[in-house]
Amino acid sequence: MTEGDKVILTAEDIGVSIDPSSWTEPMQSFPGLVLSSCYRLAPESYKAKTDFREAIEGDLPQWDLRIKRLDAILVTQDGEEVDAIRYGGIDLKKWSPSEGKVVKINPNFAKEHFVVTEWTKIAKDVEPPERLEGRIFMFSYWANKRFGRMSSRNVIVPASTLPSDYVFPGEVQKIQIQSRDEDEDTEETGSGSVLSETDAVEAVLSILPGMDSADTTAILEAVPAEARLNAIVTGIVTGVLIEELVSGGRIGKDEAGVFVA
Average pLDDT, stretch 50-54? Predict the structure, then answer.
């Protein structure tokens, strides 16, 4: 081949294409046990006005869904092993900008419609929701999933059913929970600054209202990188920090276990 010859590469050669229809969103699969599946009402703090909608008056029903991964466990900085739990619930009523009020979920709400449709497709009978408790499924999980022009975080749906006596056949993955103290990649997290423990606790308090107290994984993901001190991460996973904040009156929980400021 001479210097002037042009090399023609194809998408197959380079393993990627500029055709968007060939792209896939990063997705994780894992077997999981449904620990909790029930209806509940959102706390007042969750219904407060946001940048995206007006304050919601009246009851806001939700589907509370908690799933325990069977292929993995979390390991704290102190070596304690705890369940890896994902929260997969949805609001059953949503604010409609076009109607200026809260309406029941319908096909116009893409994420909620997707979640309910996939559950119905795989689990068949989903009413009452408690009938799903104790069942085991293979799940698909997206940290971020696009629905048209919008994207949603932490989307989880069943992909297939698994037998009631299912046991994960491989080695259970131990996920070490990293604290900000050990994060050497400061360029990825911004300025690389680390908060004091007092300021880190305040940062945790700022993200808790409206979150499910049982969804440890989601709480950890929401903690700012600069606040992920060893003591903070361990305190969240073991529940010690949360218990101290609640008992000390720094944060409250409603009857459904949702944090209330």
Answer: 71
Given this model, what pLDDT does residue 192 score? Answer: 41
Other C-beta atoms closer than 10 Å to the C-beta of 60 total: 19
State both tokens at 65.
């869904």
Determine the 3-state secondary structure of 184 from DSSP.
coil
User: In 3D, which of 142, 208, 161, 217 has the Cα closest to residue 34?
Assistant: 161
Residue 161: pLDDT band (50, 70, 90) is: very high
Q: Where are the domains of the chain?
A: 25-176, 179-256
Over 50: is that where the pLDDT of 112 sits?
yes
Nearest to 204 by CA among 154, 250, 166: 250
What length is written for the chain?
Answer: 261
Cβ atoms < 10 Å from Cβ of 106: 10
Tokens of 25: 């969103």
54 close to 93: Cβ distance less than 8 angstroms: no
Q: What number of H helices and E strands is found in the chain?
A: 7, 11
pLDDT in tens, 215-230: 777 788 788 777 878 7
- DSSP letters along 23-39, please? -----EEEEEEEEEEEE
For residues 220 and 5, give the distance between their C-alpha atoms in angstroms, rounded to a whole number: 54
Count of CB atoms within 10 A of residue 25's CB? 11
Q: Which residues pair with 103 in a beta bridge?
A: 94
